[in-house]
## 1
Amino acid sequence: MNGPGIKTFIWLRLASCKIRAQRDRTSRSGSLPPPDQTHRDAGADGDQSPTKSRDRLQIKRIGTPEPMATNPQPNQEQESQFSIRRLEPADKSKGFIDLLSQLSSCPQISDARFDLRFNEVASLGDDHVICVAEDPVSNRIIATGSVFIEKKFLRGCSKVGHIEDIVVDKEVRGKKLGQKMIRYLSDHAKGLGCYKVILDCELYSRGLNPIAKEPKFKS
């Protein structure tokens, strides 16, 4: 090999060694391309990592939560407009006796007899309570029920509540007003310390749901 050929060979060998050394230093230092450059390259190639794809799928799946409905259901709205209160003397003129006639025989009576019986019941205080529900539009009595407290010697002089005469006007049945009346009377009895409440009525014949099967009632 002549002189120029030897010089060219040596120069190529040196260049090859420099390139190999530079590669070794890069490999040892663990340097990688800048993150921004990596994301840009991936976006340019239209390639996305599996993690980012899963995140996007989860976002689409969860989405924006739907607002919760705040409007009450029809039955709840109809039930809430009827409040329950104790019987008053003026309720006779609001159809109280007519409502009782949908339950059993209840002929019309004079105002004097009504007031006399009302005062007798009122004299018993919380031990005998008659409640009614009044339609705020027509001012008619549309539901009624009563509870009286039986005082016993059993169970250490305990008390038992008896719910009777539950009736809902036939024009407004199906709005759970009877159940609301029973709950009201039951809470009254329990508030007086009754260890049980007995529901004394025939539910089907009075337009009520068969809730006497609930554990808190005995029929």
## 2
Amino acid sequence: MIDFMTYIIALFITIPILSFFIIFFVMLKLTQQKSKAVRRAADMTTILLLIAVATALRITFGTFILPWLIIFLILMFGTILYFQWKTQEEVLFLKAFKSFWRVSFLLFTCVYFVTVFYGILIRIIA
């Protein structure tokens, strides 16, 4: 049973878009609202995308990049807090974190696809 769960978790980390669609359809059944289902699926898939991107970059380029990703995320969160402070003169951490988390989802989705396609292309060429 533990092996089965390990394989399922590995599948969701390897193919985070699959987990996005599964979570989306479950949330759509529960909430009956597409916009809420998309937001919740994106929120839950972001951490899987972070792990998948770090793994894909490590496999493709052979370097452990997770510490640099964490530093980048901290800087991105700080930038979002700065812009929120400049535009609204009040920092709402929950609102800033939601913005940060959703921007991270979009960014890591793009980086994931680019890295996977680049890795596949390099393997085909070599």
## 3
Amino acid sequence: MGTLKVMTISIQHENCWTSELEDLEAITMNYHVYPDKGYLRSRIVINAGDRSVVGKMRNSQGVVKVNKVTTYNDVNFVDFLNRYRGSIAGLLYDMEVMFLFNKIRRGVETWSFVISRDRTSEVLRSLSSQGKLLDYTIDDYKLQLGPNLSQAEKRALRTALANGYLDYPRRADADVVASELGLSKVTFLHHLRNAYRKLATHYLTKSQYLE
């Protein structure tokens, strides 16, 4: 069993601004904690059509101030201050976990973070004191900065992109790209599909919290 664990929890946080906004669906991009000032600064993303949520946030007791709302394409970036004490973010900061992601959906906060194995029970007890713990998972932490493509897979992907094989419609067929690489068509497609699979697996694993 690994020393470091990834814990993902879902909680209905009582007496928090997130529990007051049941129609909110948001993803936290990042946050900074200022314990000495009694607040934390969060930046979340919500759908552009949910602009009314911002007005509700301004009136929430847990929100100190909405600093700025920026609309880009179909999303709103909301920069705001919320209370440090009594927040899940503040609790996790005090427990010195490594933050991975947070999403808020219809009154439920989902957090994922890295913690040492010997502190998992302590963290669960502390979180349970903040609200109704709906679900949690604990897995081994495996650091992966990116998909581990082989040199052959990188060459196949790079050459396919440069020659327009990935365009629609294609500007080159598999035979042309394979010839440039000095490979058979079958070998080129083998490397390319392996690259596709690794990239897709990496992206979908990292983006699970968006669903």
## 4
Amino acid sequence: MMRFPSQTPRSLFSRILRIGIVATSLTIVIASLIGFAYALWPQKELVASGFANPTSATAVGHGTENIGLLGAKYGNGKIPTNELEEIAPGRKLVPAAAEHFIQMKKALHKDGHELQVNSAYRTLAEQERLVKRQGLLSDGGTAAPAGESEHGLGLSVDLKLSSEALQWMETRAGSFGFKNTVQGEPWHWTYMGDR
């Protein structure tokens, strides 16, 4: 009687190798399913249930507050304006950044300085227009690529400051969670979270 290779007894090494391949395949499938579930699950529910660190979903990824969750939830430049808070006429930030900005502005005013908010949250379309008008940072312009701006996360402001107010910002803004994050742009300040 003729025997086929599949009918011969398997060696111990062959059995262990097959078990390893099956176990690895199962692990990959389970990890993929968990990854898909995590990606599709609303971030607020993950944070509330303890399965996500609030800062893990931030694009800027600083601080201890949920500062970037709106950007992670909706996308850079796609945050609905009703989710943002006004800090000056027509200028908005995410709630945590807005609260700290207003506190900082009051302290700056108390110390005898003024500031003007030239820009805050920007939609994707506004950032695209800015790129066309001013050029990309990487090409010598002053704009971040659309979809990559800190303004699109509702965390950054561009300010008009006197030299005295700028000096105040350089020494005191950090205590309110703000930092100058773009070298060569002393007007650009980003909320990084509580320090």
